């Protein structure tokens, strides 16, 4: 019984880590595509990502630690299948770029209010506003 509960927890941890990693992947990809569509340097476009984007790293650790546990207890074929499923999911699911625009705007507005690198953030904020009207983001 304990093994069944433990197995369920490992799979839940994998799902949570994989979904969080996929969400952050979509966020990073949206910032990249918005940057390209707006003619912004990719390194400048990364300034749009919020500070909590760094939660990507604990999500990756959780995902990979649970994959290793699944591989050790349930077989490496099951672990490889789960990794393949997450990889295919990231390839075929479209990125909803417009979903992240409010997050990016909020981050840029916060940075503008502090005055740090305000020139770069003001330019990004203006370009993000123009990009939100662009049909390429659909």
Description of the structure:
The protein is mainly alpha-helical and 138 residues long. The protein is elongated, with a radius of gyration of 19 Å. 22% of the residues are buried. The model has no long low-confidence stretch (mean pLDDT 85).
What is the fold's blueprint, element by element?
Elements: H1 2-38, H2 42-45, H3 56-74, H4 76-92, H5 97-114, H6 118-133
Helix pairs in contact: 1-3, 1-5, 1-6, 3-4, 5-6
Provide a brief overview of the structure.
Helices cover 80% and strands 0% of the residues. With 138 residues, it is an all-alpha fold. 22% of the residues are buried.
Number of helices: 6
Order of helices and strands: HHHHHH
Alpha-beta classification: mainly alpha
- Overall strand count: 0
| Unreliable residue stretches | none
Radius of gyration: 19 Å
**In one word, what is the shape?**
elongated
Q: Can you summarize the main beta sheet?
A: none
N- to C-terminal distance: 48 Å
Q: Please tell me the overall pLDDT.
A: 85
The amount of helix comes to over 70%
Give the percentage of residues in beta strands.
under 5%
């Amino acid at each position: 019984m304990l093994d069944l509960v433990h197995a369920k927890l490992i799979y839940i941890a994998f799902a949570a880590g994989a979904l969080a990693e996929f969400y952050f992947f979509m966020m990073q990809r949206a910032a990249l595509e918005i940057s390209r569509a707006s003619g912004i340097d990719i390194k400048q476009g990364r300034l749009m990502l919020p500070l909590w984007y760094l939660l990507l790293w604990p999500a990756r650790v959780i995902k990979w630690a649970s994959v290793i546990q699944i591989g050790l207890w349930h077989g490496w074929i099951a672990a490889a299948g789960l990794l393949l499923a997450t990889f295919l999911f990231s390839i075929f699911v479209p990125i909803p770029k417009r979903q992240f625009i409010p997050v990016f705007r909020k981050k840029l507005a916060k940075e503008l209010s502090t005055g740090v690198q305000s020139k770069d953030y003001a330019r990004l904020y203006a370009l993000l506003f123009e990009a939100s009207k662009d049909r390429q983001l659909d």
